[in-house]
Design goal:
alpha/beta; Rossmann fold; globular; 16% strand; 4-stranded mixed beta sheet; 7 helices; 216 residues
Length: 216
Amino acid sequence: MLIIESDLTRAARDTDVDKDGFSLSRIPFTRREADAITSLVAASERKEAVDFEASRATALTPELSKYRYVHFATHGFLNTAHPELSGIILSMISEDGKEQDGFLRAHEIFNLKLPAELVVLSGCRTGLGKEIRGEGLVGLTRGFMYAGAARVLVSLWDVNDEATAELMSRFYKAMLGKEKLSPAAALKAAQTSMWKESRWQSPYYWAGFVLQGEPK
């Protein structure tokens, strides 16, 4: 029998994800994060893909190109040894309970047509990359910008699930609510508001997210 190693297993092998065998922790607060964001947008103006629908197939559909804001709340990681094996992990199980390819690879991201005003990668270390001579910093941020995104919101370290859901809720409320702040101003407002509360005061909870691309 021929066993072919999957891209996801290869990608994980050279990262911190695969220290004691390949496994991924659950991120339960992403549902709260999604609910908080979608509550700010009319049903006719949004597409919510959660659970089984949060799939690689959904991410690759041309339909995403019509949205101004695209938000991924899931695991993402960088393979520094092989940057082409970096990516985002989506649903690995189909609605009928079968295993499916849920790994959105870096080269697939580069080939997307996604002229969004903002792409948010709400996961751990989604803003890191590898410096390659003649190419610059290669990572998920560059991939989405190459795909057409004007700006990308990413993280620089392992983030806390609950704190990230709270930060994103405040960020989108500042951007899509009454204030209608720009992405940069909304991020600053959300981070400042968390810093002012004793529970979230540590920079660990809010300072890991940065905005790349056009500042306005």
